[in-house]
Design goal:
Helix content is 53%, strand content 16%. By secondary structure, the chain is an alpha+beta fold. It has a 4-stranded mixed β-sheet. A hairpin with a 2-residue loop joins strand 3 and strand 4. The radius of gyration is 13 Å and the shape is globular. This is Glutaredoxin.
Length: 105
């Protein structure tokens, strides 16, 4: 399986997927830590992938998403954005609505 196919499969298998540095319990950068904390606070189950474990996927995902940094949050296969966008959406209440809708359906 090539890397792009692996990315598509991961996105297809998980309604909410966070590509991050490290894990939600042991993030490896401040932006990933902030994002994981917000996701946990909302309380909706989500999958994650530690991009530090797969250098090829890490580089290819930047091209796939046309987004140069991590973390990257996907909901139903669509890129929501990185830490700044996630924090703005969280503060407005939009993130919680979107995540709850995705987890229910």
């Amino acid at each position: 399986m090539d890397i792009e196919q692996k990315i598509k499969e991961q996105l297809g298998d998980n309604a909410i997927l966070l590509y991050m540095k490290g894990t939600p319990d042991f993030p490896q950068c401040g932006f990933s830590a902030q994002t994981a904390q917000v996701m946990k606070q909302i309380g909706v189950p989500f999958a994650y992938f530690n991009i530090l474990e797969d250098q090829e996927l890490r580089e290819r995902l930047k091209e796939y998403s046309n987004w140069p940094t991590y973390p990257q949050l996907y909901v139903k296969g669509e890129l929501i954005g990185g830490c700044d966008i996630i924090m703005e959406m969280f503060q407005s209440g939009e993130l919680e609505k979107e995540l709850k809708a995705a987890s229910e359906g």
